[in-house]
């Protein structure tokens, strides 16, 4: 195994492990700021370090310090302490592992050798996701059972029935998608979506299988226990549900696992239905063959985007009333310097690429970075949809939730499989 092989293995595993973990902070911030915006209030904007609030991100650090330093209490009535401690670990580890097979860029070809851009390069693809994500329910059930609390137990039982109800339409929706794609390999699925329908419409899954896309997204909301399907931890009925008895970092691991699962769920939705890492109308080979003009275009657009971003920061990062030596204005000035510093650094790197190393492997590495950025932008937008729905729709009643899964989604998913199979056979 060459040094390049070892380096790429380390980078892929690091991406698969650390990006979902880093997105916890992003998603918590997005949740709070999104809720504040939708409810016409400010959201978190007070916690700071020497006056720097980072738009509310410092609040995440304050919460982390609080969770780490809180007393870790295991209630005396808990009979099975081993399983009580194991439950949040299972939920968190499963959430991280389920992202491992998701491709975040196309196959990278260096020196004639192909490297799959996945944390775990496997051909199992979507089967890996389905196999791993199903284990998350064990963490919730164990938490409810081992807590020896009636509210926690009810939360665990609700979770079991909810997962069973919604894994079926989720899997059936995937079957109709796989009939179209003809493969379970997620990289090949995204490559298929790089084609054009009628010469100008990207062949994304949501275009080819709109009904399967809707069913999958609804089922994914239920699988992730997100509003309006968060009956597992319904505060008005179950206090806190399966994690009622948890405190400190044990509660924190449930909390982190939920947001990692949200990120992974969004990544899978993007991969199956929204083109994954594909840039619309620009396939991998098109990007490689036009790497230099694309780089020039990026160098021209980047300062313009930075200008408007800095203008937005300066407009919004000030107090709503007159303050002498406003600390928020000083904070905005620092952010302005940081943004322009990053822009200059990126421009220098791109200029060196154009002058010295463009062509060959450098073009493919540049395209890989562009595809990773595209994948992360799409996934972030899908995560925002989760936030948007949470603060827009009310929670379902439990019998309505089950009725939606068994009486509506499953029949629709079965009908979609029959219609899809008939069309594919007819066209073949």
Task: Describe what you observe in this structure.
By secondary structure, the chain is mainly α. It has one domain (3-281, 359-427). Helix content is 69%, strand content 2%. The chain has 16 helices and four strands. It has helices at 3-38, 58-69, 81-97, 126-133, 136-146, 150-181, 186-192, 205-208, 210-223, 235-238, 248-273, 284-289, 291-316, 327-357, 361-390, 398-427, and strands at residues 108-110, 113-115, 196-197, 201-202. The strands form two sheets. Strands 1-2 form a two-stranded antiparallel ribbon. It has a two-stranded antiparallel sheet with strand order 3-4. Strand 3 and strand 4 (201-202) form a beta hairpin. The longest helix has 36 residues, at 3-38. It starts with a helix and ends with a helix.
Descriptors for this entry?
428 residues, mainly alpha, two-stranded antiparallel ribbon, two-stranded antiparallel sheet, 4 strands, globular
């Amino acid at each position: 195994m060459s040094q390049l092989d070892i380096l790429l293995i380390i980078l892929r595993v690091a991406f698969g492990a650390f990006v979902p973990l880093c997105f916890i902070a992003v998603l918590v911030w997005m949740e709070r700021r999104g809720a504040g915006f939708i409810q016409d209030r400010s959201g978190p904007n007070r916690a700071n370090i020497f006056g720097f609030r980072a738009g509310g991100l410092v609040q995440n650090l304050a919460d982390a310090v609080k969770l780490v330093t809180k007393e870790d209490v295991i209630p005396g009535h808990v009979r099975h302490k081993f399983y009580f401690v194991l439950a949040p670990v299972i939920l968190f580890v499963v959430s991280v592992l389920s992202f491992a097979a998701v491709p975040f860029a196309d196959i990278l070809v260096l020196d004639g050798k192909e490297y799959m851009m996945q944390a775990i390069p496997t051909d199992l693809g979507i089967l890996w996701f389905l196999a791993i994500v199903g284990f998350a329910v064990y963490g919730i059930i164990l938490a409810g059972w081992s807590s020896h609390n009636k509210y926690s137990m009810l939360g665990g039982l609700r979770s079991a029935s909810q997962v069973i109800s919604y894994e079926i339409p989720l899997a059936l929706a995937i079957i109709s998608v796989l009939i179209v794609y003809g493969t379970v390999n997620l990289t090949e699925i995204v490559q298929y979506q790089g084609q054009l329908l009628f010469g100008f419409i990207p062949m994304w899954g949501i275009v080819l299988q709109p009904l399967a896309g809707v069913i999958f997204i609804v089922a994914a909301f239920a699988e992730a226990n997100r509003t309006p399907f968060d009956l597992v931890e319904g505060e008005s009925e179950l206090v806190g549900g399966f994690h009622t008895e948890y405190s400190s970092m044990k509660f924190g691991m449930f909390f982190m696992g939920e947001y990692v699962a949200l990120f992974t769920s969004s990544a899978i939705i993007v991969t199956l239905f929204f083109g994954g890492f594909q840039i619309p109308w620009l396939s991998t080979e098109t990007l490689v063959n036009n790497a230099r003009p694309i780089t020039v275009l990026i160098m021209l657009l980047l300062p313009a985007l930075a200008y408007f971003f800095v203008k937005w920061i300066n407009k919004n990062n000030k107090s709503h009333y007159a303050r002498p030596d406003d600390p928020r204005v000083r904070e905005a000035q620092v952010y302005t310097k940081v943004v322009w510093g990053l822009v200059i650094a990126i421009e220098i790197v791109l200029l060196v690429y154009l002058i010295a190393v463009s062509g060959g492997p450098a073009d493919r590495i540049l395209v890989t970075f562009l595809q990773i950025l595209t994948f992360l932008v799409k996934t972030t937008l899908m995560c925002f949809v989760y936030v948007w729905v949470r603060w827009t729709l009310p929670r379902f009643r439990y019998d309505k939730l089950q009725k939606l899964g068994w009486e509506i989604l499953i029949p629709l998913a079965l009908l979609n499989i029959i219609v899809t199979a008939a069309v594919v056979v007819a066209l073949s």
